Amino acid sequence: MAEIARAAERDLLRNRAFMALWAAQILSQTAANAVTSALIILVAELTRSNTSSSFLILLAIIPAVLFGIAAGVIVDRSDRRLVLVITNAARAAAIVPLILAGESVTTAYLVNFLVATVTIFFVPAESATIPAIVRKQDLLVANSLFTFTFNGAFLLGFIILAPIVVSLYGFYALWFVIVAMFGLASLLCATVPRAPRAAHLGVDVAGTAVAETRRAIAEAFHYLRATPMLTWAMVYIALTYSLVAVAGALAPGFVREVLRLGERNVVVLVAPAGVGVVAGLGVLNAVGRRLGRAHAIGTGLVVTTVALIVLAAARPFAEVFASSRFGGGLGGALPFFIGIVGVTAFVFGVAYAFITVPAMTLLQEELRDDIRGRVFGVLNVLVSLFSFMPLIVVGPIADVWGVAPVFTLGAVVVFGVWLAGRGTRLRSGRRSANVTPETERLG
């Protein structure tokens, strides 16, 4: 199997169309994540409001809820290469108002919504193009590479590129870099072969597609009710994505309120978290098989609970230091607090990997082929809803009572999920323990 995978990788690296699409994905997804990260910092600086940051992220989630089905229908009935070219060019154009209008909250909201809306057309067009340019026997490796770079682009864009460039060179420099990245991605997509176009898109076709989608989602929910192990796997994934959305919204406020630093220093919080995700992936590769998926997920949930409690406690401790000793600042205690927060964020990143990767692997391995697409469609809905609902309330709560209550509430929710899913995880762990390499080969 390893030799087959290596052969597939060699073939893919010689496939010019695949390499162009892959490079376009890296550029465009990194740029899209960098836009979101930078706009969070910008809005936080201009408004000094957690509610405003939460609303900004909500604007990035709403398009998936409103236009997700329509995006899939349009992509299926269009020239996918043209969709790829146009979506990247459109996102490059959407950044221009930030360059022309300067630092404006209204412009930030508008640009964020536009970029998110266009992105939901790019992602399905990209996924649907892969089978047209890659041999069937190479699809597994191709999808693995795209999945890896999809997650890597989040780390590179959201955690590294945007905070560092903004801190060193300012927002304008980042906007020009992002425009260039989207523009280059559009040019790369133009080199991809044209795929056969499906039937003409019409109102009747769109209506049929929507009806079929509703039936497919109903079938997926029916299937998941009969497989609680997979249902819980989806809950874990949706929970972690929701925590990331909430953390992204509150990070600038946390840096401002707890560490008494400017919002552009949010890198001291998000960078350790990104490094923690990478470290968590490495640990899972080393000990994941011995640890088992169920134990890895349980461990990740417990560690996440503890990390959230530590972050919640940082605020009142910082208040004590600031008021009693340093006259409004943390002074000599600042390195200590930065160290504590950085280590906690790192541990949070490790826990994120421990939860998300085993849960996603479980879905990919256990789902039947005929239901996989529908279940992942439900997963996308769950992720959007799980992210949407808390973002409505966490901003106002943080503005009135500070970030500590939000992290405390998050810890309670994570612990509740750990407790509620414990029985299913234990049954899953016992089942995995009874599967030997010999039975895997026979199965």
Short description:
The chain is mainly α. The chain is built from 16 helices and no strands. Helix content is about 85%, strand content about 0%.
Number of helices: 16
What fraction strand? under 5%
What is the number of beta strands? 0
Task: Sketch the topology as an H/E string, one letter per element.
Answer: HHHHHHHHHHHHHHHH
In the CATH hierarchy, what is the superfamily of the largest domain? Answer: MFS general substrate transporter like domains
Give the oligomeric state. Answer: single chain
Structural class computed from helices and strand pairing? mainly alpha
CATH topology of the largest domain: Growth Hormone, Chain: A
Q: Can you tell me the CATH architecture of the largest domain?
A: Up-down Bundle
- Average pLDDT figure: 78
Backbone shape: globular
Residue stretches low in confidence (pLDDT < 50, at least 5 long) are: 1-5, 435-443
Number of domains: 2
CATH first level of the largest domain: which class?
Mainly Alpha
Radius of gyration: 22 Å
